[in-house]
Write a structure and sequence with these properties.
The complex is a heterotrimer of chains A (about 300), B (about 300) and C (about 375).
Chain A: H1 2-40, H2 58-63, H3 80-111, H4 117-126, H5 132-146, H6 152-176, H7 180-188, H8 193-204, H9 206-222, H10 225-230, H11 239-247, H12 260-285
Helix pairs in contact in A: 1-12, 3-6, 3-9, 6-9, 7-8, 9-12
Chain B: H1 2-7, H2 10-25, H3 32-58, H4 79-85, H5 88-120, H6 126-138, H7 144-152, H8 158-165, H9 178-188, H10 192-203, H11 207-216, H12 220-231, H13 233-249, H14 252-257, H15 269-279, H16 283-310
Helix pairs in contact in B: 5-6, 5-9, 5-10, 5-13, 10-13, 13-16, 15-16
Chain C: E1 4-13, E2 16-26, E3 31-35, H1 42-50, E4 57-62, E5 65-68, E6 82-85, H2 97-107, H3 112-126, H4 141-153, E7 159-163, H5 171-188, E8 191-196, H6 199-205, E9 208-213, E10 216-221, H7 223-228, H8 233-238, E11 245-252, E12 257-259, E13 264-266, H9 269-274, E14 280-285, E15 290-293, E16 301-310, E17 315-321, E18 324-330, E19 341-346, E20 351-355
Parallel strand pairs in C: 3-8, 3-9, 6-7, 7-8
Antiparallel strand pairs in C: 1-2, 1-4, 4-5, 9-10, 11-12, 11-14, 12-13, 14-20, 15-19, 16-17, 16-19, 17-18
Classes of the chains: A mainly alpha (about 300), B mainly alpha (about 300), C alpha+beta (about 375).
């Protein structure tokens, strides 16, 4: 009785609280995006949130060098289409490498039984604990040896190596949830082990592959540090570096001469592939299956 | 740690190889399975492990990025580390980093968990909330500081305008409240990995468990503490580890936004390592800072796992 | 069709014994049931035949081919020409029902029109024609089971292996599916090995049954043989419902009686000859074969009614005295109250006697 009574009182107010928190959260997350969207079509974009009287597409034209930029940054040659292409090459290559390698490794880790497997899984995470910044010079030297300087594929390989551990964990989780019965059934029907892998296991792990593709594409698409040390030629910049070279004059001083309009237009274009990819993978993102942590360190 | 060393010791590797070879011969193991591990491990070893070991080696030398010392550096033992102990900026940086990491972790994790609850709830709008909440993740990291810079502009920024609407005085976000700003930026898109992982974990909890609670009249708090929490424990720990690792490692936002200032108030350890190595050219010293960071992350991860075992 | 021959088949997982020294011949076109409690090694045996596990010792022949000799020669599952239905049905989640059923035929490189014809024919037969475009997770357990069976039969297999095919169905469906499998076996005539832990199911479908316990083969025989001539106490207890009454007693050679302490039974000469030399024995009698009467009968044993369970078509009466109790199956018309005294009589031709030490049947 007592509990039911309490419930009747708290239920509606809890419901209100739920929506208040939700609205506050959405406010925090969406305000910058609203600004971004509005300023893209604003002829005189600035930090202020103001709905333009005459929406314009001029900012996109400035971006691709068709119309000149007004302030100092115009001195920079803007190779926007090339930068977009470069980013795309890096992102797609990263995605392919990570998807293929993490699928293979995740499958092996899921099906193999050997002593120290959990330690290997833990080491995968621990290997990334060294801050990227401390590894930069060794990485740089290594990349000179391998000829990765000014090489987009090289950038992708390095980015992929950073994204691999977590994605292997995710892939292993998906494979752990695919019963062995499926493979065995395929063997019995005449599949060789490898063809069972490609005909049955991989398609059944499709959602996992999609999730990994989503994350690894974004890792390659937005990466800044790796191209920063590996790419020298301006025409080979990815967008992340290009933005910095156009809009960032000295570190810590962004905004001194920021052209907000073109910047927002660029951000919008830049975000587009990720949004498309999200749309394609949205059904699977909520069903990530993580490998259980069995760390015995 | 001891186990790790033992695992990678030569005799153990030999023993493992021997067993594997025996099993391959008898057809118990398929050869292609271990082979599947090779490409991923190669990539990780070449581009993660080797640079790490290399950096640890540098931290014991007086290597400098410019001039003669780049090539003719000497082994100087723990000198870099003992210098660190007497470096006031390092200690300042350490406390700044701790502050940043703890606040970031709490906020990112809380928002992530709350978001996970919303998007897995039975609300009819849940589907649309997912789409909205995922949007920040699609904005590339280098663009985010620019967007927030405009938000936080002292004179025209949206945030100060909103404050004035409620009757509060405008704040100098970028200078006086640099730390708060940086944390705010970091959390803006930083909750999404946590949200997705936790939402997946929540979805995998069978509905019946909650129905049992309903029957016995368990309170919401009880339900959360005794059903939900234990069942999402492992993804939860992994989330915390990943968030923590990312916070301590990534300095793009402070680099582009405050450059560590004012007065080292946002000088994160990773940024300090960068400054030492690439602005002051004291590469060995910078690497030593990096090693300290790695050790902190490692120890805290261990502690988290141990704590979760006890709980 | 072919026969399957296991010769001293032994399988260990690490140090854990799964099966030991099983020698079993499964005749051509026969439906052989592997029966036993869970963990007895019956599924392992099936997987060994399929080639999903390798033997530790022994040999397996399919037809005249040696497919596994535990040392060198091993034929992988895909060359064994067997078909299998898993307990989980193992329907491929990313394929619809049509693609699932067609899968083995696609692998065998049949032409598209042949596959189509065959799949439709089977779908018709199994009554799943309307489901061909659905995904497995949209099907009920019964439908999934039929899809799995159809898939296993697309290519006329020489050997069909069924691993607890009815375990995931509810009781009513199970009886129907049982009958279907028996009809299918007649129609397709493939050598079938059927694994189950349910003795009623086993008795219902089997041509012959092989009973396993803790990895050891206990007895092979027709359902009737297992029922009437159990080779040891395990089979006696396992086969039949309610199971056989099993009571320890001693055999007195001089008086030629079985001594139960509170009462004794006189045995004829032929039995006492067979029992010569054993004193500690186990006495067994089927509940259906005990005569029960509410009034005194000559040479009857006096017992008290402990509980009566009316099942509609029959009653199960449990009677006891001291530490000894018997279950008796009676016609539904037999009515007694709990606590009343009844008399039992054992027909000497229906009793079983086992050695107490080994558990093996003496008579």
């Amino acid at each position: 009785m007592y509990k039911g009574f309490l419930k009747n009182i708290t239920e509606p107010s809890l419901e209100v609280l739920r929506y208040v928190i939700l609205i506050a959260m959405l406010f925090y997350i969406l305000t910058p995006l609203v600004w971004l969207f509005i300023t893209t079509f604003h002829p005189r974009g600035g930090p202020y949130l103001e709905i333009p009287e005459k929406p314009t597409l001029e900012n996109f034209l400035i971006l691709f060098g068709i119309v000149k930029m007004r302030v100092g940054a115009a001195a920079h040659p803007v190779y926007m289409h090339k930068w977009l292409l470069n980013s795309f090459i890096i992102a797609i290559t990263t995605m392919i490498i990570v998807v293929v390698l993490s699928a293979m490794a995740g499958y092996a880790l899921s099906r193999l039984k050997f002593r120290g497997k959990s330690i290997l899984m833990a080491s995968l995470l621990i290997i990334g604990f060294m801050p990227t910044i401390a590894k930069l010079l060794p990485l740089y030297k290594l990349c000179i040896m391998l000829g990765f300087i000014n090489n987009l594929i090289g950038v992708a390989i390095v980015v992929a190596s950073g994204a691999l551990p977590v994605q292997i964990w995710i892939m292993k989780g998906f494979f752990d949830h695919i019963p062995r019965d499926l493979e065995e059934q395929a063997w019995i029907f005449g599949c060789s082990k490898l063809s069972a892998l490609f005909r049955v296991v991989m398609p059944a792990a499709g959602p996992g592959l999609m999730v990994v593709a989503f994350f690894s594409f974004l890792a390659g698409w937005g990466n800044f540090t790796v191209p920063l040390i590996l790419i020298r030629t301006e025409t080979l910049f990815p967008v992340s570096l290009g933005i910095a070279s156009v809009f960032l004059h000295h570190p810590g001083e962004i905004g001194l001469a920021v052209e907000y309009g073109p910047l927002c237009a660029l951000s919008l274009i830049y975000a587009l592939p990720s949004i498309i990819l999200y749309y394609l993978t949205r059904r699977y993102l909520m069903h990530i299956k993580l490998a259980r942590i069995e760390v015995g360190v | 740690m001891l186990k790790l060393i033992k695992f990678f010791s030569l005799s153990n590797i030999y023993k493992l190889l021997h067993r594997v070879l025996r099993d391959i011969k008898s057809g118990l193991i398929d050869i292609y399975l271990p082979l599947f591990l090779v490409p991923a491990l190669t990539l990780l070893i070449v581009f993660q492990l080797i640079p790490t070991i290399w950096a640890i080696w540098y931290s014991f030398t007086d290597i400098e990025l410019l001039g003669r010392k780049l090539f003719e550096y000497n082994f100087i033992g723990f000198e870099n580390y003992s210098d660190l102990g007497e470096d006031p900026i390092f200690w300042k940086s350490m406390s700044v980093t701790m502050e940043y990491c703890i606040y970031s972790l709490v906020i990112r994790f809380t928002i992530g968990l709350a978001a996970a609850f919303y998007i897995t709830s039975k609300m009819r709008i849940a589907k649309y909330i997912v789409a909205l909440l995922l949007l920040p993740y699609t904005i590339p990291g280098t663009v985010i500081p620019y967007i927030w810079l405009s938000m936080l502009d002292t004179r025209y920024g949206t945030l100060n305008r909103l404050l004035s609407l409620v009757g509060l005085p405008p704040q100098s976000w970028v200078y006086r409240r640099a730390m708060e700003s940086v944390i705010m930026i970091n959390c803006w898109a930083g909750y999404i990995m946590a949200m997705l992982i936790l939402a997946s974990a929540l979805k995998s909890i069978p509905e019946e468990y909650y129905e049992v609670c309903e029957i016995y009249g368990a309170s919401r708090l009880f339900r959360f503490l005794h059903i939900t929490l234990p069942l999402i424990k492992y993804p939860l720990i992994l989330c915390i580890i990943l968030i923590f690792k990312e916070d301590i490692d990534d300095f793009t936002y402070v680099y582009m936004f405050t450059e560590g200032g004012p007065h080292y108030r946002t000088e994160l350890l990773s940024l300090y390592a960068y400054h030492k190595a690439f602005a002051y050219y004291e590469l060995g010293y910078g690497c030593a800072v990096g090693v300290i960071v790695a050790i902190i992350v490692f120890l805290l991860t261990l502690a988290q796992i141990k704590l979760s075992r006890i709980a | 069709m072919v026969e399957i021959f296991l010769e001293k088949a032994t399988k260990y997982f690490g140090d854990v014994r799964a099966i030991e020294d099983i020698t079993l011949k499964i005749r051509s076109k026969e439906l052989m049931v592997l029966l036993g409690p869970s963990g007895c090694g019956k599924t392992t045996t099936l997987r060994l035949i399929a080639g999903l596990e390798r033997l530790t010792r022994g040999k397996i022949y399919i037809g005249d081919r040696l497919v596994d000799d535990a040392v060198k020669s091993f034929t992988p599952p895909r060359y064994r020409k067997v078909s299998m239905v898993f307990q989980s049905y193992a329907l491929f989640p990313h394929m619809n029902v049509y693609q699932n059923i067609a899968f083995p035929a696609v692998l065998a490189k049949w032409s598209k029109s042949d596959i189509r014809k065959r799949v439709l024919e089977l779908a018709e037969m199994f009554g799943i024609k309307e489901l061909l475009n659905r995904k497995p997770h949209q099907l009920s357990a019964g439908q999934q089971q039929r899809v799995a069976l159809a898939r296993a039969l697309v290519i006329q297999p020489e050997i069909l292996l069924l691993d607890e095919p009815l375990a995931n169905l509810d009781a009513k469906l199970r009886t129907a599916a049982r009958a279907m499998i028996k009809r299918l076996h007649l129609k397709f005539g493939c050598t079938t090995v059927y694994v189950t832990h349910d003795q009623i199911e086993a008795m219902a479908v089997a041509d012959r049954i092989a009973v396993l316990n803790e990895g050891i083969l206990q007895q092979v025989g027709s359902p009737d043989e297992l029922y009437t001539k159990p080779a040891n106490t395990f089979i006696a207890d396992f086969i039949g419902s309610p199971s056989m009454n099993i009571v320890e007693c001693t055999f007195d050679e001089e008086k030629s009686i079985l001594d139960f302490g509170i009462f004794h039974i006189k045995v004829p000469e032929n039995i006492s000859k067979a029992l010569k030399g054993c004193s500690d024995v186990i006495f067994g009698v089927r509940p259906e074969r005990i005569e029960i009467s509410p009034s005194r009968i000559p040479e009857g044993v006096e017992m008290e009614v402990y509980v009566v369970e009316p099942l509609g078509d029959r009653n199960i009466v449990t009677v006891s005295r001291g530490e000894i109790s018997f279950k008796v199956v009676t016609p539904p018309t037999f009515k007694v109250d709990i606590g009343t005294t009844v008399w039992l009589k054992f027909n000497i031709n229906d009793i079983h006697i086992f050695d107490k030490k080994t558990g093996k049947a003496i008579i």
